[in-house]
Design brief:
By secondary structure, the protein is α+β, with helices and mostly antiparallel strands. The protein has one domain. It is built from six helices and nine strands. Strands 3-4-9-5-8-7-6 form a seven-stranded mixed sheet. A two-stranded antiparallel sheet has the order 1-2. Strand 7 and strand 8 form a beta hairpin. Helix 1 crosses helix 3. The longest helix has 25 residues. The protein is globular and about 60 Å long. Bound molecules: zinc ion. Zinc ion binds next to helix 1.
Amino acid sequence: MKCCRFCGAEASLIKAHVIPEAFFRPLREGGESPLIVAGAKGILPKRAPIGIYDKELLCASCEARFSPTDSYGVDVLLTRFTNHFEPVRQDSQTVGYAGLAVDKIRLLEFLVSILWRASASSQPFYNTVDLGVQEQTAKGSLFGSPPIVSATFDAVLSVWSESDDDRIPTTALMNPHREQWDGVNAYRLYLGKVVAYIKVDQQQFSEPFASLSLQASGPCVLVARSLTGSNDIKAMRKTALTSEANRQAFHAARKRT
Ligand SMILES: [Zn+2]
């Protein structure tokens, strides 16, 4: 029997999600679980969905501890986004969104909880995430009441602007991507229309990101970004195409058996 990665107990482990399942749901077609393409090459379509859950991560009681934070993140960033955020306009253009009542630290806790799970997970979709010694710091930042997240972690959020009529689905989930911002280590996490740039570093973000971040005071702000012309669009297009090829291969394989 495997040990739960969170509590360490030997227990029967459940199908635990890293990125909550709700963010994958728009990718479903005809009730099928989506096939997600990891950035790593050579991952063959399997008869089980890739990247959706990990059966070697959490026991049922630990999974339940993640649940309220997950619900909050899904509610704010996905299902009731328009209830939480008002558009910020400049010269009739939407340049961002502001959420006055959003609990920024709780939202940061949600993002850190995803990073912890991604780091502890052995799923190929998440193999770009390795928090190393900060895995303990991430764990220690979870489930406080009220939530208190270590200053090692902070995040800036962006949202793909709605004026884009490019037909690339922004719901295509790409695997997390590691990068540096002015020498500050960060991960880019794709959550539907929202992209989170999460700092894992004792250095602070530099301006203008520092004042837009979740650890900063003031309302929760998301910067609107145009997908057209961004570096992400190429990767997203490739992901969407490979995902479709994988989906077809999956169906063909299933028909043969
Ligand atoms: Zn456990």
